[in-house]
C-alpha cells in the first residue's frame, strides 16, 4: 500500500512530526530516527537522508535550534535539537490545521463510504 501517493502524503507530515518529537524534550538525530521507526508500520522506515535535511530546514527557518555536546560513546560531538518559541507557535498552528484537515477529510471519506452501499 506504499504507493507514490502514500509516500508523498507521509513526506508532507514529517516536518510536523519532527517538531512534535523535538517539542517533548531536547533530542538528537539518531533518537528521532529510532522513535520514528517504532511507527514504521504506518510511517515507513526513517532514513538519515530524509530526516537530517528536514532538521536542517527547520533550523534554517528558526523553528529549532541545535547545540553540540560531547558524545559519550566515541568522544566526538553530538547535535542536540530543541524547539524555539517560533517553532512552538508553528507547531501549534500546524496541529490546529491538522485537526481541521483530518476532520474535513474524514467527512469526505464518510460520504464516499456511504455512497458505496
Could you name the CATH homologous superfamily? Winged helix-like DNA-binding domain superfamily/Winged helix DNA-binding domain
Number of helices: 5
**What general form does the structure show?**
elongated
Task: Domain count, please report it.
Answer: 1
Largest sheet entry: 3 strands, antiparallel
- The SSE string, one letter per element, is HEHHHEEH
Percent range for helical residues?
55-70%
- Strands, count: 3
- CATH architectural label: Orthogonal Bundle
With strands numbered from the N-terminus, the spatial order across the biggest sheet is 1-3-2
Question: Whole-number average pLDDT?
Answer: 91
Rounded to the nearest angstrom, the radius of gyration is 17 Å
Overview of the molecule:
- With 117 residues, the protein is an alpha+beta fold.
- The chain has one domain: Arc Repressor Mutant, subunit A (Orthogonal Bundle), CATH 1.10.10.10.
- Helix content is 67%, strand content 14%.
- Strand 2 (64-70) and strand 3 form a beta hairpin.
- Helix 1 (4-24) packs across helix 4 (48-60), helix 1 (4-24) runs antiparallel to helix 5 (85-115) and helix 2 (29-37) crosses helix 4 (48-60).
- The chain is elongated.
Key traits:
about 120 residues, alpha+beta, Arc Repressor Mutant, subunit A, 3 strands
Amino acid at each position: 500500500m506504499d504507493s507514490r501517493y502514500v509516500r508523498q502524503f507521509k513526506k508532507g507530515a514529517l516536518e510536523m512530526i519532527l517538531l512534535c518529537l523535538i517539542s517533548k524534550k531536547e533530542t538528537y538525530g539518531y533518537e528521532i530516527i529510532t522513535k520514528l521507526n517504532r511507527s514504521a508500520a504506518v510511517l515507513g522506515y526513517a532514513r538519515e537522508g530524509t530526516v537530517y535535511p528536514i532538521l536542517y530546514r527547520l533550523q534554517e527557518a528558526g523553528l529549532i535550534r541545535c547545540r553540540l555536546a560531547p558524545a559519550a560513546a566515541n568522544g566526538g560531538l553530538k547535535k542536540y535539537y530543541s524547539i524555539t518559541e517560533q517553532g512552538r507557535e508553528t507547531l501549534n498552528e500546524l496541529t490546529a490545521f491538522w485537526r481541521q484537515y483530518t476532520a474535513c477529510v474524514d467527512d469526505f471519506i464518510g460520504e464516499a463510504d456511504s455512497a458505496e452501499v
